[in-house]
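check this one:
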Amino acid sequence: MVTIKFRGRRTDTKQWQYGYHLVLHTSAEDLHYIVDDNGVYHRADPETIGMYAGQKDKFGVEIYDGDILRERLDPDNPEDETRTVATWGGDKWMFREIHTNGSVFCEELGDVTGSEVIGNIYDDPALGICPNHAYPDPYDGNAQEEGVL
């Protein structure tokens, strides 16, 4: 069974709220709410609202749209890591790697059992930049073939 739920930052306390996403359309504006398990409506910043990806990291932390995940590629070399941002791609979940040279690599969200959520793009966007790697230039003619957008 698929669990559908959302997370959004409350406008009053700036804390993260989890539950269902509800949009009330008014003549002046659209009001976004996260409705918790007790049926309480919490006004949320629409820019921060993200859906649960249906997966958990290696520590059991739920992964939401906008979460930044880190995976250590070599246990003997802690600097050798990759960082990805969980992103809804319109019809499927994607990992989006953003590299220090500005290039972006996307792939379908797969096995995340070796990854850990280290933050999100709203609280600390700099965490989403992959450190210590040389990446292809996005303007290189071969970049699209290599998965760089």
